[in-house]
Amino acid sequence: MKLKAVIYARYSSDKQSEQSIEGQLRVCHDYAERNNYAIVGEYIDRALTGTTDKRPEFLRMIEDSKKRTFDYVIVYQLDRFARNRYDSAIYKSKLAKNNVRVISAQENISDDASGVLMESVLEGMAEYYSKELSQKTKRGMKESILKGNWTGGYIPYGYNIVDHKFVINENEAIIIRKIFDQYIGNMKMKDIAKELNEMGIKNKLNKPFASSYISRILQNKKYIGELSKTYQSEVKSPKIIDIETFETANEKITRNLHKGGRFNADELYYLSNKTICGYCGKSIISECGVSGNGNMYRYYKCSNRKKKGQCKKSTIKKELFESKVIEKTIQDIFIPKIIDEIAENIVQTFNKQIKENPELKSYTRQLSDIEKKISNIMTAIEQGIITSTTKEKLMQYESEKTDIENKLLSIKNKSIQPLEFDNVKAFLHDFERQDYTKPECRYRLLEMFINKIYLYDDYAIIVYNGIKNSGNLLNLGNKKTELNNLFEFGSSGSPERARTSNLSVNSRVLHH
């Protein structure tokens, strides 16, 4: 039975051609065929950067994952999914809730602890590259921006480009004003989109409107004449909306976000997919509730206790648990020899895997087969065995050989470069300088380094990615408790009490 998958493809700017999409799709379809995936859909964003999540097809794919019609998202490389690590982690988490996993067709990343680390490193380096490219591009675009010229990229609904400058598209401008008026008049974004679609009006991509597209329109400052703040440019784009209307709409957006955020049960529980109940072995899930005075309380709770009441594990406050795990992770990971160990693990595993490129192997085998066929024909000719089809067959095989050699050359030219130890080490050290009061930084740390947590009432056992013999004890009680048993890991993969000497809950536990 084939596994169901969709393909997500993206290119960044108008300067890249449709051929870029065709190439990504071809590689993804080849990967799917080799690995027994049935492609049930494609999502393609054209001329949209991966540094933002404001991509219509991308968001539609995330929403469609709720229907459970596919199990995997195949991308050409991970930077096609996102070049922003926080966005990548957030949306992978959303897909994971719907049992959907992201797969890179080119990077051959394994589905284990090393794979988690490699994904994070590759995404982090892609984000760094994107920022570097952005700096260089901005320097080159400075003069064009100061002149008020269009520098390429996405053209907002309501405008056309004439002689490299924004001009108002009057027909689309009417729709823009209508959207602002309807939203200020308490019409929901989804209802605005629905009405426009029922009228047969298409967006700038010639596709139906979506709530996310309406949201971007309402927050786009180009409509009030702000072309770019870069280099403190004084040049203005033509106004479609007056400032008062724009500010009224955006104040309403802000109020709605705050109103919905206070009791939002979808707030990220950073450890819900990584934590297991130490008592019954079931997953630890998110739990929230509202007190009598209207305060929201968030917890982690054993799924077995929540659904069947068959586990004694008590709940733990979300903020307390996550903060203690972050503090412990920083304490355990940011040690020079540990960083070196993780970096070496990533480099060795990744570089071994890219040498095992299945597409390269496949074409190499095909080339070997075709060369044998050519050799056999040449041997037959030398022995005087010539038929009416000999020349025809030889020309066919020579043509196939040339085609395969060209494909091999193309693959080698586009091949993933090996990771270097110093680069990976520098990337890991960058985590030491992050502000872990920020949600995105907290998420990155936990997503990258935490493999699994076994949670008890007074303590937890943390298993880290990329570290052999890792099982670290975290004290969750108010006092420093002594454990009379050392924890090892049995054949089931869960911790078992071993008959060994005393060990403080703040000590590191080794297991096999």
Question: What would your notes on this structure say?
Answer:
There is one protein chain. By secondary structure, the chain is α/β, with parallel strands linked by helices. Helix content is 47%, strand content 16%. The chain has helices at residues 18-34, 56-64, 78-81, 85-97, 113-146, 170-184, 189-198, 211-218, 243-262, 303-308, 318-333, 336-355, 358-382, 390-413, 421-429, 439-449, and strands at 3-10, 37-45, 72-75, 101-104, 159-162, 165-168, 275-277, 284-290, 296-302, 316-317, 450-455, 459-464, 471-475, 482-483, 486-489, 495-498, 503-504, 508-509. The strands form six sheets. Strands 7-11-12-13-18 form a five-stranded mixed sheet. Strands 2-1-3-4 form a four-stranded parallel sheet, with helices on both faces. Strand 15 and strand 16 (495-498) form a beta hairpin. Helix 6 packs across helix 9 and helix 11 (318-333) packs across helix 16. The longest helix has 34 residues, at 113-146. It is globular. The chain starts with a strand and ends with a strand. The model is unreliable at 14-19, 128-141, 228-235, 258-265, 479-492 and 497-512 (pLDDT under 50).
Widest beta sheet: strand line-up: 7-11-12-13-18
Flag low-confidence runs.
Answer: 14-19, 128-141, 228-235, 258-265, 479-492, 497-512
Globular, elongated, flat, extended or rod-shaped: what is the shape? globular
Number of extended strands: 18
By oligomeric state, this entry counts as single chain
Measured as a percent range, the helix fraction is 40-55%
